[in-house]
Specification:
Length: about 400
């Protein structure tokens, strides 16, 4: 008896990532990157072993949407006899209304396309493959899973900017992102950290993109990213929170236009900008350059301040969870953040931290500290099965 398969798709401007799930198990994961330059297709099976892929060089896909149209027939052939029952897509923006994943319809697609000005660097790329699949494989159900949805439980005060109130109606408000990651963490907390699952927890999703989320009994009540994924913590190449007057100054003094500001804040700032060396935390940890050390100090300082701010939003703190590339792997960064959070009741077990243990606080620590690997794709796969099961848009 073979089970049905769900495909998870994550499309960017020049890449398409895909993962096939049978239940919660990964059957295959792959990537088409270099789209627009020299597209290459790579894939691995569930055990991580590279699998043979079709040669796409002769007729290379020109867009991620075209890449999906190459990948779907190949996957159907490779898993002949099993049914690909749905595609679940990571979509950055669900706007103010969608607090959960949605089955894709033409009307939904139109509504999501209208949100593109709110996330111009991601939304159009996320939607293009959905549109292509809707046209070319119309009987294959698709589900849109939003990075914003999990944060729709935040109270109004946490979503508001202190701007003229009519701006909120135009969509200018705090949405928050990394929601699929936080939702996954919230979903596993009862099993892996039952003592804090019902309490006040800050989750630190520290990767190339970085943010914090305040969970109260598993629901998001505050987060550091806002209108865009630029706000909050400094990141690999993004600046995080800055005084908006800096932008005004650069426009006035340097004549920077929108594209110039965008390039500066999204791609030349953060760890890369501060260090002048790299956006990769591994490079910075390995470097003796004082600027690399300073970049890491700024990162730790901002994360610790952010945790304090979210603890204030929660009215206290019972648990702290580290996740994503840096949070899961960089013991020295976790240690420095925990050290800066001692005043909140964080008492790190240095040995457990260095040993990559799942719980890294000491037994009597008032705040229990955990390292939990995130799994956004699995969250999307589960949502997708649930949404097609319900069959409601
Ligand atoms: P993304 O936001 O791209 O999904 P990830 O969560 O995969 O990012 O995190 C990627 C980042 O994690 C890399 O830029 C790297 O700096 C960092 N990272 C990965 N492994 C380690 C490690 N062993 N030590 C320190 N940093 C690491």
């Amino acid at each position: 008896m073979t089970a049905d398969i769900v495909g998870v798709v994550n499309a960017g401007s020049s890449s398409l990532k895909f993962t096939l799930y049978e239940g919660d198990a990964v059957l295959l994961s792959g990537l088409v990157d270099g789209i627009g330059v020299r597209p290459a297709l790579k894939a691995r099976d569930g055990a991580g072993v590279a699998v043979a892929v079709p040669d796409i060089a002769a007729d290379p896909p020109g867009t991620p949407a075209e890449a999906l149209m190459v990948v779907i027939p190949w996957l159907r052939e490779r898993f002949a006899g099993r049914q690909l029952v749905a595609l679940g897509h990571r979509v950055v923006h669900g706007g103010p209304n969608h607090d959960r994943p949605r089955l894709v319809t033409p009307a939904l697609l139109e509504e999501l396309a209208a949100l593109s000005p709110l996330a111009p660097l991601h939304q159009p790329h996320n939607l293009a493959p959905i549109r292509a699949a809707m046209e070319r494989t119309p009987r294959l159900p698709q589900v849109a899973c939003f990075d914003t949805a999990f944060h729709r439980t935040m109270p109004e005060v946490a979503q508001a900017f202190a701007l003229p109130h009519e701006m909120a109606a135009r969509g200018i408000r705090r949405y928050g992102f990394h929601g699929l990651s936080y939702e996954y963490i919230a979903s596993v907390l009862p099993a892996v950290a039952s003592g804090i699952a019902g309490g006040r927890v800050v989750v630190a999703h520290l990767g190339n993109g970085a943010s914090l989320c305040a969970l109260h009994a598993g629901r998001s009540v505050a987060t550091t990213m806002g209108f865009s994924a630029l706000d909050g913590l400094p990141m690999g190449t993004r600046c995080g929170e800055i005084d908006p007057a800096v932008v005004l100054h650069l426009m006035r003094e340097d004549g920077l236009d929108v594209a110039g500001v965008e390039a500066l804040l999204y791609r030349r700032s953060g760890m890369l900008g501060l260090s002048g060396i790299s956006s990769d935390f591994r490079d910075l940890l390995d470097s003796d350059d004082p600027r690399a050390r300073f970049a890491l100090e700024v990162f730790v300082y901002r994360v610790a301040r952010g945790i304090g701010s979210l603890a204030a939003a929660l009215g206290g703190l019972d648990g702290l969870v580290f996740t994503a590339g840096v949070g899961e792997n960089a013991a020295p960064i976790r240690a420095a953040i925990c050290d800066a959070c001692r005043w909140l009741g964080v008492d790190l077990d240095a040995t457990a931290n260095a040993a990559k243990a799942p719980m890294i606080s000491r037994e009597l620590s008032r705040v229990s500290v955990h390292v939990i690997p995130t799994d956004e794709n699995l969250m999307i796969a589960r949502h997708t099965r649930a949404a097609i099961g319900e069959g409601v848009a």
